[in-house]
């Protein structure tokens, strides 16, 4: 759907809400048009397309009774019914005295190049050809490659925000991303490897490169050995780094845990908590980030926000939407999430994080390691003690022992449990190449130590 149509729907929704005698109103009309080609056992088994559209409506009564209702329709009748429902819910709610106001309008500029026509209109045949390239590349890597799986997704997203204070803003972007997982077999042993890539342009995806990378890790993962838990030097691929950074954003840099006393920033502000080489900024207008949007889910302009500066965090590292900012008498930093598969509700989050690169390569980081581990990625990660940034999780899809500067053997997956305040305190090397992933653009990173507390069953 054309973004102009979304703008019209959002404004009409606000106008209708004001006729219901509400004090303030906000509407976000959105549309997600995505297509997915999924493959497993080295063949395509699913090709689906879906369009999801609707309007998220927020109404505020004069005594600060508030409600938010999402209508999964763009039809006028359904939207009006949702507005009326929102008003009924607000009237039945208790006043929220912490609410200050919806955001005032600010000047903003569209992000150039955010929408790519080829990606937004990508055909199943085009995706099938790219998948074929990946499957063939993986199998050509080794006869031990048994199966190739994954998905390739392309599409476009758009949303328009209007509110009763005069906000009128919108965003539109194309998306393309691919994950390839390779399973290798040798007798009774299985090995796994995976690789991912995200871009706003489908032509930038490199299926063969992803497949070869995943296949190499899968074959090298065959016949893993168990090693004892303990502290190890680790070389983390960008996939693993992105997982850590995503959880740091969730438990540390969001205003909600900060105001609830659960964020580590609350206790370590203005201290040298990380290595001085660590610098992270949240910047939606940087061309390297994936979700290149000019405004957030409330129409507030996106601006760079320094999360970590030379290893230091501060009160200025916190991401706000209008509600959490109002609680402290501040302005929103532009981190309200748009209603596009919004898992976190109204929790403000950084989703355009970029880590400053260093000058090293993965090969140099491995050569610099006398005895340690290479970790491709993590999964089942969860926060254990947010105030100390303690995370736990398992390695996955390629974990290897490094001895005397060389990868010598695959190991059975390990569970780590450690404070990132400790793990990121000493970072001997940072990669010079950045990989764009969904919410973070990151390099490889070598850590002086990471504590592993157990061995997985597989």
Question: Which SSEs are present, and which pair or pack?
Answer:
Elements: H1 3-19, E1 24-40, E2 43-60, E3 66-71, H2 76-91, H3 117-120, H4 124-141, E4 145-163, E5 168-186, E6 189-199, H5 207-220, E7 230-236, H6 238-251, H7 255-259, H8 265-268, E8 280-282, E9 305-308, H9 322-327, E10 353-355, H10 362-367, E11 371-385, E12 390-403, E13 406-410, E14 414-419, H11 420-423, E15 429-430, E16 435-436, E17 440-442, E18 445-455
Parallel strand pairs: 7-11, 10-17
Antiparallel strand pairs: 1-2, 1-4, 2-3, 4-5, 5-6, 7-18, 8-9, 8-10, 11-12, 12-13, 12-14, 14-18, 15-18, 16-17
Q: What spatial form do the alpha-carbon principal axes imply? A: globular
Low-confidence stretches: none
Strand order of the largest sheet: 3-2-1-4-5-6
Through-space gap between termini: 46 Å
* Derived structural class: alpha+beta
Q: Can you summarize the main beta sheet?
A: 6 strands, antiparallel
Portion in strands: 35-45%
Q: What count of structural domains?
A: 2
Continuous helix count: 11
What order do the SSEs take from the amino end to the carboxyl end, as H and E? HEEEHHHEEEHEHHHEEHEHEEEEHEEEE
Q: Overview of this structure, please?
A:
The structure is a single chain. This protein is of the alpha+beta class and 458 residues long. It folds into two domains: 216 residues, PmbA/TldD fold (2-Layer Sandwich); 233 residues, no CATH class. 24% of the residues lie in helices and 36% in strands. It contains eleven helices and 18 strands. The strands form three sheets. It has a six-stranded antiparallel beta sheet with strand order 3-2-1-4-5-6. Strands 7-11-12-14-18 form a five-stranded mixed β-barrel. Strands 9-8-10-17-16 form a five-stranded mixed beta sheet, with helices on one face. The longest helix is centred in the first third of the chain and has 18 residues.
